[in-house]
Write a structure and sequence with these properties.
Radius of gyration: 16 Å
Structural class: mainly alpha
Number of helices: 4
Shape: flat
Largest sheet: none
Helix content: over 70%
Number of strands: 0
């Protein structure tokens, strides 16, 4: 049973790491003059938006964060993924 939990924990950890890497690529692409309709940009948005969008909806409920000139949902989602990834070994 411990072995199965270890494998599941490692798989989830690798998935979260890949997701964080994709989020970093998305951030870098947003700074570059790349066409937003390119296949790479569409792929990165399709892979990362399901994580960022719920955080954006949650933060929009708060007046303090909805009035900010920047979208901090990306940063908050990245931090949440990092915290979950750090807590995985504790769970298993």
């Amino acid at each position: 049973m411990i072995g199965i939990l270890y494998v599941i924990t490692k798989c989830v950890s690798v998935f979260l790491g890949i997701l964080q890497l994709l989020m970093m690529f998305r951030a870098i692409i947003s700074w570059l003059p790349i066409d937003e309709d390119s296949n790479l940009a569409n792929f990165l948005y399709a892979m990362t938006e399901p994580v960022i969008y719920p955080v954006r909806l949650l933060l929009d409920r708060f007046e303090a964060t909805s009035e900010l000139p920047i979208d901090i949902s990306f940063i908050v989602a990245f931090i949440l993924l990092s915290v979950i990834q750090m807590l995985l070994p504790v769970i298993a």
